[in-house]
Amino acid sequence: MLRCFTACSFFLFGSSLAFAQPSAQLLPADRSIEQAVDHYIDAKLKEDKVTPSPRADDAAILRRLTLDLNGRVPTVVELQEYLASTDPIKKTKLVDRLLESSAYSRHGAQTFYAFMQYSEGRPRKGDKGNPLYDYLLSSLSENRSWDRIFREMMLPNEADPKMKGASDFLKSRVKDLNKLAIDTSSTFFGVNVSCAQCHNHPHVQQWTQDQFYGMKSFFARTVDSGGFLGERDFGVVKYIPNKGAEKVSPILFLSGKKIDAPGMKDPTGEERKKEQMRLDQGKKAKAPPGPPQYSLRAKLVETALAPENREFFARNIANRMVHRVMGRGLVMPLDQVHSENPASHPELLDWLARDLADHGYDLKRVVRGLVLTNTYARSSRWEGEKAPDERLFAVAQVRPLAPMQMATSLKLTTADPQSLPTDRKKLEDRIVALEGSASGLANLFPQPTDNFQVGVAEAMLFANNEALQKSLLAGVGTLTERMKQEPDLTKRVDLAVRTVLSRPGRPEDVQALVGYLQRRQDRPDAANQQIVWVLLTSAEFRFNH
């Protein structure tokens, strides 16, 4: 019958991640991303005597790529064209087309917005119209480098209307500097320092209270100034260690780099007055205040991107991009990059970090390289008795669809497939319209986590929401209406399977579903709808595999 997929169990290993200096034995820098990834992954498989799963079939590759790069399932026409093509480089051409689509930027913006916002526990907001989402969308549309995005978010030019959203990451946290320090470290450096807030980390020797408050000190002078971000010329962070009296925290980067900055004292009355006048001028003018004489946030950016410190910045984004494409990072969890949690493939992480830095942190380039690997193309099915350790990347990871992926795919697959344009530009415009109509539906689905399980609320949504079923299945312009026009039951079922599951119907699927239609000839419309509904609610549709 229908294939069922089970998300693999999530577990920690060791305790954390790698911080060794890049090895002199790394593959040469002139190797392609595809070559480097497959070299290191295959070497580990050989060492552990594990034979990986075979390459996925063309239908599975098409669906996986379209979901990963454009945030939706493919159309029936796209499926037919890809399966019929005998071009030996059809996959490469498909990847390049998907990367150039505007949907790549929209889906990428949703992905980055999710880990920048949902990781800190705020309720989900609609993506479109959100300043941070809009900023990320414009950044990815222009293929801005990751270091530029980091710089613009830490040092936003609020006088430029186009940069309005860049300030949202800081502004949404500016009244809680502990959270600002934690989220900045987690998001951009892969280090969750929260455990070192009240005491030195119990398991990771390198994370001390000095490290936590040292990172917080970079934001000690950042304030809300009439709705804009201001930065004072004075300000320090004080804390009480586990043992001892209150102390002023040094300004300390994660690498141990200490920053000597002016203003590390309480200001005089005259200095305080002058500083407040500068901030008040911006409030009166309803404009950003003038810059400080010395910006600690600017120093954070400079320090983080310096070659001697960028292992945090470069390794973090390398690890996150592997996770985005492969479904898991070389280090898991993503914000636990430290000496007690070694990477599954430390040399590969070092190589990718170096490659990203050498090529200007071009995210689209690294995504392209990753999806063209043999590792990415493996089947998600394991035929042996026991699946190998997930860290080996021997089997493609099964991943839940993100809210917009799920909602857009529901809208797309329940539409009459013949109503969808075959012209790519017109189809892209239609997809944009479908995404707009799917935004409310997306709010009904949870943001996936690494140990995701379908919850009771979602199960009840599909079981009991008659309005949802009617909106997707009934009426003119739907898949079920198109099915009514096909008298051949075998072809009717195959159309439904191709449309919803993005693959040809297998004999066992077709036989079972045709049998159901034959038994329900008294209510053919309801039977068509029930077949589509069972496909939509299957694990095969719910997951990217």
User: Strand tally, please?
Assistant: 8
> What percent strand?
under 5%
Q: Total helix count?
A: 24
- Helix and strand content put the structural class at mainly alpha
Provide mean pLDDT, rounded: 90
Give the tally of structural domains: 3
Low-confidence stretches: 1-22, 119-126
Oligomer: single chain
Shape: globular
Helix content: 40-55%
* Rg of Cα set: 26 Å
Strand order of the largest sheet: 1-2
Q: Termini, distance in Å?
A: 17 Å
Largest sheet: 2 strands, antiparallel
Describe the structure.
β1 and β2 (228-231) form a beta hairpin. The protein has 24 helices and eight strands. By secondary structure, it is mainly alpha-helical. The protein has three domains: 33-55 and 310-399, no CATH class; 107-305, no CATH class; 403-544, no CATH class. The radius of gyration is 26 Å and the shape is globular. The strands form four sheets. The protein has a two-stranded antiparallel ribbon with strand order 1-2. The protein has a two-stranded antiparallel ribbon with strand order 3-4. The chain has a two-stranded antiparallel sheet with strand order 5-6. The longest helix has 19 residues, at 424-442. α7 (146-154) runs antiparallel to α12 (296-305) and α13 (311-326) packs across α15. Mean pLDDT is 90; it is low at 1-22 and 119-126.
